[in-house]
UniProtKB/TrEMBL annotation, chain A:
It is found in: Cell membrane. InterPro entries: BPD_transp_1_N (IPR045621), MetI-like (IPR000515), MetI-like_sf (IPR035906). It comes from the Bacteria. This is ABC transporter permease. Residues 94-295 form the ABC transmembrane type-1 domain. The chain crosses the membrane at residues 9-29, 100-121, 133-157, 169-190, 226-252, 272-298. It is a multi-pass membrane protein. Keywords: Cell membrane, Membrane, Transmembrane, Transmembrane helix, Transport. It holds the Pfam family BPD_transp_1_N. Belongs to the binding-protein-dependent transport system permease family.
TrEMBL record, chain B:
It is found in: Cell inner membrane. Transmembrane segments: none annotated. It comes from the Bacteria. SUPFAM superfamilies: P-loop containing nucleoside triphosphate hydrolases. Belongs to the ABC transporter superfamily. Residues 18-270 form the ABC transporter domain. It comes from Alsobacter ponti. This is ABC transporter ATP-binding protein. GO terms for molecular function: ATP binding.
Amino acid sequence: MASYLLRRLVLTLPVLAGIVVITFLLTRLSGDPTDLMLPPNATDEAREAFRSVNGLDRPLWEQFVVFAGRALMGDFGASLRFQQPAMGLVVERLPATIELAFATMALALVVGIPAGVVSAYHRGSATDTSIRTVMLLGQAVPSFFLGVLGIIVFAVWLRWLPTGGRGSLAQLVLPATTLAFNLVALIARVTRSCMLDVLKQDYVRTARAKGVWEARVVWLHALRNAFIPVLTVIGLQFGLLLGGVVVTETIFSWPGVGRLAIQAIYARDFPVVQAVVFVFAVAFVLVNLVVDLLYAALDPRISYK
Amino acid sequence: MTPALDASVQVRSAPPVLSVRNLHAHLHLGDTVVRAVDGVSFDLPAGATLSIVGESGCGKSMTALAILGLLPQPAGRITEGEVWLDGVGDLARLDQRALRRVRGNAVSMVFQDPMTSLNPVFRVGWQIAEAIRMHETVSREEARRRAIELLELVGIPSPSVRCDAFPHQLSGGMRQRVMIAIALARRPKVMLADEPTTALDVTIQAQVLRLMKRLQQDSGAALLLITHDLGVVAQMAQRVCVMYAGVIVEESAVGDLFADPLHPYTRGLLASMPKPRHGAARQALISIPGTVPPLSRLPAGCRFAGRCAHVFSKCREAEPPLVPVAGDLGPGARKVRCWLHVGSEAA
Ligand SMILES: Nc1ncnc2c1ncn2[C@@H]1O[C@H](COP(=O)(O)OP(=O)(O)OP(=O)(O)O)[C@@H](O)[C@H]1O
Ligand SMILES: [Mg+2]
């Protein structure tokens, strides 16, 4: 297990290198980064000074080596807007985003898995049809629309919940629900199809033949098997969650990394954008590593030697 | 028949522990109704082995599943008939809660494929212990201790180590032994075994059959052994029911069946059996021509008529009843479902 972990960590190095290349290219795509990073009305002298300070007058490969070396140390330069290290700004906002992501994932699992199980167990019934209809909607409606709708209904009309900000549980409800909606739909759909398959298996019949009561057959014997593929899908769709974070945090003024990213893009604060992209990419890689390890823990047939 | 003889027959066979009466189990698939079990009756005496034999698809598994109320859902249901279990009542009329208390307790079941019948994510010791803990309140340690004992009983080497193995770490034969341990966990009155050795290697088959026979004799459980292999019947059972297209076509003591098969289908089955003697030249296997009629569109008259060499007009008109052959009454009676034999009795 430890050696597998080590090997997996070593294998993430090329991925990490790829991430660095992409973040580097991000600012070079449109030619001269000076145009991106300085206001359009900057003087030619200012542009020259910026170029030499940031080494933009050097050959591209040399620029990359310098950038990569710093990036791997977490140094993406200073934010143009805040005049603080870009990575520091991201790390500051990371707890808020992690809080939102965990709340969302917990909510999505707590709702999505039972919905999928019930839907599969009562396949073809009215319950199944209604669950599937709601899930279809959940996958089709974009989260920004749900977010705005949620604010209008629960914050403006009913005044039950605040429109945004972070600190209280009440402030977490709307953003987490909005963000969880698509994920619930996805988890329920995958859980349903996995459960349909597992409920047909011989070992489920064996459990019943032993006198195991029905709820235990479904929620322990069957779900314990069906959850394994569901977990993989959750890992693969983690990117979906990160994308949603950017939109949702902005709508609800949630002081997290996603909102920082949008602000940085509008402000052409490229060092911050690069730091966010890098952090999100690393998070995606780490989450998938954790999912792989969980997979091995849940499925005894997989041995990571 | 003298009264004395009649009495001796009564003494020889114990009262039935399981008595199936006119059982109908149908599968409703859209507009079609598959009459998988279509009026099956038999008695299983306490401590005895009764075998159900027949070709693939004749309803053997559905009979066993119907007894335990485990027909595939939502398609399957018992439409008619009774399943009397000694000391419990008619299983066909119990609700799921009451049936749960019977399953794995008074009546247990061993399935055909040990590779898929154990849950892959739980340790085998845990799966055996669960069978105990579903029916009595014991500590986890006590349940585990008994699981290890059961593993030892079914002949698994180093049981206290294998107890913590996952199913995929065991061979097919070992897994079937684990299934047998699960079935024995609560010392059931009746064990249903649905082709318990079909999925195993030939050498392992013999071992597992011997084990089942020994355990059945030691525990005193009655065994309903489903198979399509007459060799298994000869080795294991005292009585045998030959099943064809959802009904029993012949029932008799095993010796009588081999010595003098009455139903043309039984004769066909016996003729298609490979001869165990290696002295004689290997005969080409004779197989019964034709195929089983689909259980959703059964013919009027005898179900075997389409494949029978002795068919005559009456066979196509009405289905023959399963009746005792001439002069033979009582619980040891031979029964056959064939107009040839009904005629001879009436004569
Ligand atoms: N889940 C199911 N859905 C639809 N039809 C089924 C199902 N299971 C069994 N059947 C049908 O019911 C009939 C009886 O099946 P059953 O499994 O009892 O046969 P069997 O005698 O056990 O055969 P085998 O030797 O192949 O196990 C068959 O004709 C089969 O096609
Ligand atoms: Mg079968």
